[in-house]
Design a protein that fits this description.
mainly alpha
């Protein structure tokens, strides 16, 4: 195995420099902080999911009632429109003027 003179010393110097930079950057602490922040986000997301689920369970009966009301109102509206059409048909079939000339009161 042929080695270049000083190569091993150069590599050792670069490793030591990288370790100093690593320690200066305090990456271990930053990594722990990021992991803790990520865990808080996961917990927050779970809390939001649970909150949404509880809210939907609370309002489910109200939504069902409102859906029933809406269905009734829709059917009432359809009936009223049909009644209006029938009244319009009756109105169209009646004469516009009254031709009865009989006097009803003296």
């Amino acid at each position: 195995m042929v080695q270049e003179p000083g190569l091993l010393d150069e590599l050792e110097r670069r490793v030591e420099e990288a370790e100093r930079k690593f320690q200066a950057a305090d990456l271990d602490l930053r990594l722990k902080e990021l992991e803790a922040a990520r865990q808080r986000q996961v917990c927050k997301g779970n809390q939001q999911f649970i909150f949404k689920k509880v809210i939907s369970q609370m309002f489910h009966p109200i939504v069902k009632i409102q859906a029933t009301w809406l269905s009734r109102y829709s059917s009432d509206l359809i009936e009223l429109r049909l009644e209006l059409e029938r009244l319009e048909d009756i109105s169209k079939s009646l004469p516009l003027e009254c031709w009865n000339t009989i006097r009803l009161e003296p």
